[in-house]
Amino acid sequence: MGCRCANSNKEEFELSSKKKKEESKEGNVEHQKYELKNNIPKNHIERDENVDYQNQSGQQQIIDNIKDNNIKEYEEEEEIIKNHKKIKYLNYPEKLLEIINAIRADPFSYSNIVEDSIKNIVESINKEDITKNKIVYKKKVKVALTRGAPAFLEVAEELRNTDPLPPLEFVPELCPPLPETEEEAKDSSFLKNQVFAMRSEGIRIDVFFKDMVKIPEISALLMIVDDNGKNSGKKRMTLLNKNIRYIGITCKFVGKIFIAYLTFSK
């Protein structure tokens, strides 16, 4: 850098090391930059096959950062809710994909987070029927579960026996239009109709589903465990499918409802 003294070299080295640590902490790895490649057909996108996916820098740091107490920034974003027209969880797609790719790169490490999250499962009494209990994951959000702890334990064991997978690549063309009204957001056929329309235009979408958990860490956890009773395991199988290569993630608030759409392509 043109420094002429030992002290300057030392200071520059310390600043460089500090910068690298900060970049690593933010999970700022090259394959997680979202860029749409030019002049590529909508239904086919090439990728670099010469990447050592098992040793991506920053992946372990990302896993280490996916802790229950690592959601302060999302609590601060709640202030944005005061103005619904400007509500944007701008970091949700990027953060969620960062976590998904970290899980794919190191399923074994993530198994410990799944198992540790069992402490957040509680028995919640249904107010409408005092005799009817339901299992709930309760940590900044409240999501009904079907089996609870047994499902978490089984998934943790499955992750320990899952081989590392290459990262998914974000493709904006895979993102379907979002609903404009709460009625559309609650309509189970809305996303399906958008995907069918995209397919008719030649865009390949193999799997799609929606999510309504606005905190990426918890959203990823519950999608991996996928203990919802209906098609349980489908989301996990998609996220850990070695043949899935591309992903689209988009989200917004519609009134007070948070909605996220995830689409996948081989």
Molecular structure report:
The protein is an alpha+beta fold and 266 residues long. The protein has one domain. The chain is 38% helix and 15% strand. It has ten helices and seven strands. It has helices at 6-25, 59-65, 72-77, 92-105, 107-116, 149-160, 182-186, 190-200, 216-225, 234-239; strands spanning 121-125, 133-138, 142-145, 169-170, 207-211, 246-254, 257-265. The strands form two sheets. It has a four-stranded mixed sheet with strand order 4-6-7-5, with helices on both faces. It has a three-stranded antiparallel sheet with strand order 1-2-3, with no helix packed on it. A hairpin with a 2-residue loop joins strand 6 (246-254) and strand 7 (257-265). Helix 2 packs across helix 4 and helix 4 (92-105) crosses helix 5. It is globular, with a radius of gyration of 20 Å. The protein starts with 5 loop residues before the first helix and ends with a strand.
Task: Give the class from helix and strand content and strand pairing.
Answer: alpha+beta
Query: What is the typical, i.e. mean, pLDDT?
Result: 76
Helix run count: 10
Order of helices and strands: HHHHHEEEHEHHEHHEE
Q: Rough shape?
A: globular
What is the count of structural domains?
Answer: 1
Strand coverage percent? 15-25%
Q: Whole-Å distance between the termini? A: 45 Å
Radius of gyration: 20 Å
What's the β-strand tally? Answer: 7
Which sequence of strands runs across the widest sheet?
A: 4-6-7-5
Helix content: 25-40%
What characterizes the major β-sheet? 4 strands, mixed
Low-confidence stretches: 1-10, 17-21, 23-57, 73-88
